[in-house]
Design goal:
Helix content: 40-55%
Largest sheet: 6 strands, antiparallel
Number of strands: 13
Number of helices: 18
Distance between the termini: 15 Å
Shape: globular
Mean pLDDT: 90
Number of domains: 3
Length: 490
């Protein structure tokens, strides 16, 4: 899993999805040429190229018309998804369907939006629009036993990246429930369920469309409800005789996600930059929305020739809601990504887009709970937000901060953590070069009442996973652990 994590840290979810869909298109075309799938491989390739072109051109035109930053990856992803659910048929017979589906998908992002954020999954909307306008919807031909293996392999990587395993499990279980309940007692019960699963489009639908971060909930409970709602919506659509079942049920779920997420897209203007240490810089922006200490945002910064990590990043807000600015803090490697390079070059007055305010890695409502904050490197940012919030409000909490860095010179915000003593925060700085890593014995020595506390862990994925195992080994239950992680950091 270490190698998989390294790969996932080196690529954005959107770029990963784009490569995944491209592989599916090429793979399915090859199966057609080998006469394994009963379609024409050229039809698939031509439809894919046409849909990607239609979506790209429509997206570029609409972005210019509405004066918003263009995101090329999203239009390409939508085009490939539509190519895998429309047809395959002769291009001359299907081009009107492809055209309406592609244009409608892109138009939905701009015409059906609130506070700069689109509500519906574009591909699902395009499929429904085509069905309503031309009476020709998605065929979902991608649901084939020959497509199962690549869909499962790519889908696993996507799910590990976006961490929506529970949502997919709940939806799949809800979708299969009628099959499960009606087959009880039959001799080929399990075989029937498996056959239904691999010959339906449900795997592609759940691993590609259901989990789209822009139109699905981010809180765990809401993700469970979302999965149930979409599954129930499928069977309700069937009872009303609606033939575009999956697309329609997903659109209903998108409305629910929109309501619970309170999504928005805004443009922030840079006020100033602060050098926190040799390789850590803070960026201060003019605030114009409310958030909770510890939450994060998706940041979009279009720039020329983006690398495999694309033009989007998730950064925790390192400032407190009580401050007069919104701040992110990040570390710059010797050879940074193209996104980081573009971010570092931002000057006062220049703008960046933000969306997807998310995260439940926030302070517990119960102020009597004893807490331990464990931070690795740049993972200190959510704790800076929380502790500054407590200082400004004069709110006392019993918190031990274990802050691990390679050398003590890498510590950032030390002045703030030292000041936080009067609100009950006790900071312990750990240099791995001179003191070693935080381990069981260090936790037991520094925090005698550790079994009574709730642990918040923030840092690189490998560090977070390691600490979860360490804490479980000394008797800390999973209910006492909350985690945040920073992809892309060693």
């Amino acid at each position: 899993m270490g190698s998989i994590n390294l790969f996932l840290n080196s690529i954005t979810m959107y770029r990963l999805m784009l490569y995944f869909l491209l592989v599916l298109v090429v793979y399915s075309s090859a199966l057609c040429f080998l006469e394994i799938l009963p379609y024409n491989g050229f039809d698939i390739l031509i439809s894919s190229i046409y849909l990607v072109t239609i979506c790209w051109f429509s997206n570029k035109l609409l972005a210019k018309l509405f004066k918003v930053p263009i995101n090329i990856e999203s239009s390409l992803i939508t085009g490939f998804i539509l190519s895998l659910i429309f047809g395959p048929a002769s291009f001359l017979s299907i081009w009107p369907t492809l055209t309406v589906g592609g244009i409608s998908a892109m138009a939905s992002k701009y015409l059906i939006a609130w506070k700069g954020r689109h509500i519906f999954n574009p591909a699902a909307f395009g499929a429904v629009a085509s069905a309503l306008i031309l009476n020709q919807g998605a065929s979902w031909w991608v649901g084939s036993e020959w497509m199962v293996l690549p869909i499962l392999l790519g889908g696993f990587l996507i799910l590990r990246k976006v961490k929506r395993f529970t949502m997919v499990f709940v939806f799949t279980l809800g979708f299969l429930l009628p099959v499960i309940t009606t087959g009880v007692g039959k001799s080929e019960y399990l075989q029937d369920i498996l056959a239904f699963l691999i010959t339906s489009p449900i795997l592609f639908f759940s691993l590609v469309m259901l989990i789209e971060p822009q139109t699905s909930p981010y809180k765990n409970l809401n993700q469970v409800l979302y999965g149930i709602l979409v599954a129930v919506g499928f069977y309700m659509s069937a009872s009303f005789g609606i033939f575009y079942l999956l697309e329609a049920s997903l659109l209903v779920g998108n409305v629910f996600a929109f309501l619970v997420n309170r999504s928005f897209r805004k443009t922030l203007k840079l006020k100033e930059k602060k050098q926190e240490s040799e390789d850590v810089v803070s960026f201060l922006f003019e605030p114009n929305f409310k958030f909770e200490a510890g939450q994060y945002l998706e940041w979009t910064l279009p720039h020329p020739k983006p690398d495999s990590r694309g033009v989007r990043r998730f950064f925790t807000i390192s400032s407190s809601p009580t401050e007069g600015f919104l701040m992110i803090t990040t570390r710059f490697a010797e050879k940074s990504s193209t996104f980081k390079s573009a971010l570092k070059k931002l000057e006062s007055g220049q703008e960046i887009s933000v969306s997807n305010l998310e995260g439940d890695f926030t302070l517990p409502r119960d102020t009597e709970k004893k807490l331990v904050f464990i931070a690795g490197g740049i993972g200190i940012t959510p704790f800076r937000s929380m502790i500054k919030y407590l200082i400004d409000r004069g709110e006392k909490r019993d918190i031990v901060l274990l802050y691990s860095v390679k050398t003590l010179e890498e510590i950032v915000f030390k002045y703030l953590f030292d000041e936080a003593k009067f609100v009950g925060v006790s900071a312990v700085y750990v240099s791995t070069d001179t003191m070693g890593f935080i381990d069981q014995s260090m936790i037991q020595k520094q925090i005698p009442d550790y079994k009574e506390r709730y642990f918040y862990i923030s840092g690189p994925q490998t560090m977070v996973d390691s600490f979860k195992q360490t804490l479980k080994a000394i008797g800390i239950s999973s209910k006492q652990i909350r985690t945040d992680f920073f992809p892309g950091y060693a």
